[in-house]
Amino acid sequence: MPHRRIAVTGLGVICSLGHNVPETWEALRAGRPAITPFESPELAKLRFQNAARVCNFDPAAHFPLTVVDHLDRFAQFALIAAREAAQDAGISWTPELRQRAAVITGSSIGGQSTQDVQFWDVYHLGRERVHPLTIPRTMPNAGASQISMEFGITGPVFTLSTACSSSNHAIGVALQLLRGGGADLAVAGGSEAPLSFGMLKAWEAMRVVSPDVCRPFCRDRKGIILGEGAGMMILEPLDAALTRGAHIYAELAGAGMSSDAAHITQPTVDGPVRAIRGAIADGGLQLEQVGYINAHGTGTPGNDPAETRAIREVFGPLADRIPVSSTKSMHGHALGAAGAIEAVATLLAMRDGVLPPTANFTEADPACDLDYIPNVARSARIEAALSNSFAFGGLNAVLAFRSVNF
User: What confidence tier does 120 reach under pLDDT thresholds 50, 70, 90?
Assistant: First the structure.
């Protein structure tokens, strides 16, 4: 029996590039990175001094102070992006739709900044009590729960945590739920706010963070740049979207998921290959239809060549004609939110026929020999596109989008 086709009808984002979709897309098209130095004196001793922060963010502009007290920064981001996506989609929240809607989000670490502050109070200051809302602020599902309460959604609501693939897994599971009739609409994506002192020290210890900028696929790349933010989308059956006259960005055609089952931090080629092939097969796509790949592209020594080899193994000679870019070069690596932010970038590229570049590009690594759209955006009409996420733990999730207007 044919499954329901699923459309993307609304987008929302907040990240270092902008506080909404128009601001973010303008920066992506311009190839303008938003990587800035830390401002806090306590971070001066870190080996790296830059991050992709959401600057000039005032929670009070979005929430009453009583609500701000309940929400960690990552959950605030989740709700802001979800609000924009729902407004963009023009959703009318009837009682019936609220019962048949779902919220599925991804987050790698949840309310890390809250946890960091409270641990400091206990371990360093010796305080006997912590904030009474520490648990609700810290729990990774706080963003999903808040979105549910905001819109009165009483269908399936949950959060997935698979490190850097969290939001791609969340979007893929939402696709499966909608196809199978378990819901009639889904808010899906991810959020993250990992730029607390303790988390930054943990990343410093891994020695994978660049001291300057992120240069994916370049010979002189030095690692990731940590980022924060959220991306959300509204998913609904294509026929329902057409019936109500909704604007459709693209069809979420397929999702592929796999595990390397090999190493906790070092990527394989086989795992990503199976995820990419799975997304293409699930979407009923032909290799020739794929006209753009938003790469995982972290700028690390291990990821970039492995991802390049995986793309070559899947596409063979066709790989030379497929533009590939890593927008992490501009908005940083937002961990569990990365896939959602990158999915938004991919959908906007399909809408406007403009491929965002890989910024900060210098000289390609000989082991990275694809077309990475260096530094300057490119016009292209796209029939189908992929968005890759490959996480620590060897967990891979790839999304496939298909134009409905090609």
Answer: confident
- Known catalytic residue at 169: no
Point out the catalytic residue in the list 19, 214, 333, 368: 333
H-run or E-run covering 189? strand 185-192
> Residue 268 and residue 266: Cα distance in Å, rounded?
7
> What is the rounded CA–CA span in Å between residue 75 and residue 78?
5
Are 231 and 341 in contact by the 8 Å Cβ rule? The answer is yes
Catalytic residue among 19, 169, 296, 331: 296
The pTM assigned to this predicted structure is 0.97
Q: Which domain holds residue 385?
A: 255-402
Please confirm, yes or no, whether 164 is among the known catalytic residues: yes
Positions of E strands within 45-90? 50-51
Please give the tally of structural domains in the chain.
Answer: 2
Query: Do 99 and 238 belong to one domain?
Result: yes
The one catalytic residue among 164, 214, 218, 368: 164
How many degrees, rounded to 5, is the angle at CA 342 between CA 76 and CA 245? 85
Shared domain for 84 and 122, answered yes or no, is yes
Residue 147 in any domain: the answer is yes
Longest dimension (CA), the chain: 64
Nearest residue to 272 via CA among 401, 396, 400, 399: 396
Q: Is 55 a catalytic residue?
A: no
- In whole angstroms, what is the distance from residue 373 CA to residue 1 CA? 40
Q: What percent of the chain has pLDDT over 70?
A: 100
How far is the C-alpha of 80 from the C-alpha of 96, rounded, in Å?
24
Distance CA 378, CA 124 (A): 51
53 shares its domain with 118: yes
What is the rounded CA–CA span in Å between residue 314 and residue 405? 26
Of the pLDDT bands very low, low, confident and very high (cuts 50, 70, 90), residue 2 is low
65 in a domain, yes or no?
Answer: yes
